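Narrative of activities, Objective 1.

The group set out to show that a structural description can be obtained from nothing but a protein's sequence at a throughput compatible with the screening campaign. Below is one input-output pair from the validation batch, recorded exactly as produced.
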Amino acid sequence: MNKSAGAGARQVNTDPRVPRVQDAQERPARPGFGFARRHGAALTAWHADSADIACRQGVRPEVLAELRRHLGVELKLTAYEPPAFERLLRELYEQGDDARSMVSDLDEHLDLKALADDLPEPEDLLESDDDAPIIRLINALLTEAVKEGASDIHVEPFESRLVVRFRIDGVLREVLAPQKAIANAVVSRIKVMAKLDIAEKRLPQDGRIGLRIAGRPVDVRVSTIPAGHGERVVLRLLDKQAGRLDLVQLGMDSDSRKRLEAMIQRPHGILLVTGPTGSGKTTTLYAALLKLNDSSRNIMTVEDPIEYYIDGIGQTQVNTRVDMTFARGLRAILRQDPDVVMVGEIRDLDTAETAVQASLTGHLVLSTLHTNSAVGAVARLRDMGVE
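Output recorded for this entry:
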């Protein structure tokens, strides 16, 4: 046992029966910063037939079991109070060349060597050897976010640090906090991938990245905005496989699913899906469209942007630069003899009135409203001015 753990540490023993690692060169890669911070366990030292592990008090047994399997040796644990564990993590992962050390470990943990080839790499000065760790960091974050089912990645610069957070199941969670020194390089890399102007730091910008991660096509919407300590970036992840979910896979109970299936089979009317950001409104609409998609119906959509392409459905994208709004697109679609119309979101009175009128003239209209509950949809429509 290590007796120099310091204040806030409590020593614990484990007795797993695991094979001994004979050669240091055969040792597996050290678990990365993301794993250590999320699960509360970090490798601090190797020995001939054991490894020292610092762990946060309350670490789950399955985490230790996974570490034993990965490292292949007996674990000697030292438990820390959460604040002491956080300080230790920074010391472990910010030694030497701060950001590069952390990025390298994160890269190894995610095994990005095979995955990085699937990412588009625009020709740019950021591809030089000096910036390779930044590229690996962005690739690692995107891969980890997709694996964990995150809907958004937030990159937030503050006075002395850079914070990266994932939104999972509607809740933001911090996953990485490297030093502020790499903030500009991280933001520039993201802007290059999204084909944004890296020299423009005074105005908000919006872009899009198309890539494949572990064989899965993923679209990423990128939004930047200038802030007090640098540019903030939010990446909205659109996993195209999510657009192939059917109503059964959405996880609804049987009664709710049957009621929804009955509603979408009606020849006309309006169905509004409500909920906060990232709650699955668009995914629910796409599942409904997949259920309705057959040769007997003309299904058309107007979206901002088109999140998932579906064969057999006519999809139109909003373009505010040329005054192609939801309302204008919807009016054009209604002249295309549609049976089912999907409007990505009702945002204003013009769109709302056009959608309601369409539902009263023989069309089934599906759309979303940004409210926290179904009851709130009525109040929201009234606020817009719908009679």
